[in-house]
């Protein structure tokens, strides 16, 4: 194959910055890349079932993200495509306006590459998406389709959301990089809420540089999202990516739930700790016991209370179109009192402030993203307990692929840090990614 041919046919699994560098060298590659992604997707989609809707127009536009296909989780509004919210109620719903983040992507030149499967209203009732590494296993949720689409090399970037663990956990299950920015970093205008005090917009990609670049372009604020708080601005050089933070000071946090982790997940984690230590990281074990114990009850109280307010009327109007899972969720929320909710909100604010003090002297936390490989079957999207603490305090968190389990499914590690320290956490993750040199590649399903 000639060098020119290689430039014109980017491989499945190429990253965002890799593609942008290639497009700069060969504009013809950008012009045809969207169609190549669409052709691959149509071939694989009957098995993967990652998309609710595929795009009609994949023409490359001009801009910082020109030529980059971005898949959009189907609770995020798109004015030219249906937005179903994973629900039969909204099966034919086309919003009048784009979500804030979709409008920003369009203005940056990105190709809006369809809508990816979400669990019902981003809660537990799953859609049909399978794990591309083994279709008998879940891809995780609620951002099921976005994680699977990136893992299968169908798109280099996808939007997801996280209320407990819906970016970090599916990223780990699918062997891709997942990033949940600090709470409020990206406006949620046009994103269907589940729990406004916990909902985050996040990303799936193949490299840390790619999610860092996405955040540098998409972080912002809107008067219509009262929880927004702009991050300190930063830029990412397309040629170099984000600057890694060498020899970081890492706090290893296992939590009391460590004993429930699968043996192969523990083994991968211990190997990562040893490798990073050998590469110069200062490793210290700490507990964060209060975050571990206070988080569970408080985060559940907040989520159930707010979801009940949001969905009670919808269930009353469409009882035959709402899952039993969502009905049970709302019914549980009705038992929460106003005093319980206010106490949980106070605990959330306290823990967010306390974490910054507890992590003084550390650059980031190293912990698990999940208890192990993606569970077998499609009815259960996995446990979010290792993700929920960082969602609860609005902390930035990255999931990095780190190995494979006994069943051939990906395993990861999670790197987190204090609220609004997003760039610092990304720099630590970039260093760890380079030291680990682990690339899971593209699963067999996507190579057919």
Write a structural description.
The protein has helices spanning 3-8, 16-25, 27-48, 100-107, 144-151, 168-174, 208-218, 263-278, 289-317, 324-333, 338-358, 388-392, 422-436; strands at 51-53, 69-73, 111-116, 157-162, 177-180, 200-205, 249-253, 282-286, 364-367, 397-404, 410-416. The protein is α/β, with parallel strands linked by helices. The protein has one domain (12-290, 345-447): Amidase signature (AS) domain (Amidase signature (AS) enzymes), CATH 3.90.1300. Helix 4 links the parallel strand 2 (69-73) and strand 3. It is globular, with a radius of gyration of 20 Å. Residues 1-8 have low confidence and may be disordered.
Number of strands: 11
The name of the CATH architecture is Alpha-Beta Complex
Instruction: Provide the structure class.
Output: alpha/beta
User: So how many helices?
Assistant: 13
* Percentage of residues in helical conformation: 25-40%
| Largest sheet strand order | 1-3-2-4-6-5-10-11-9-7-8
- Counted up, domains total 1
Give the SSE order as H and E letters.
Answer: HHHEEHEHEHEEHEHEHHHEHEEH
Query: Quick check: average pLDDT?
Result: 96
Major sheet attributes: 11 strands, mixed
Instruction: Catalogue the unreliable spans.
Output: 1-8
Q: Please state roughly what percent of the residues sit in beta strands, choosing from under 5%, 5-15%, 15-25%, 25-35%, 35-45% or over 45%.
A: 5-15%
CATH superfamily: Amidase signature (AS) domain
Q: What gap, in angstroms, lies between the N and C termini?
A: 20 Å
CATH class: Alpha Beta
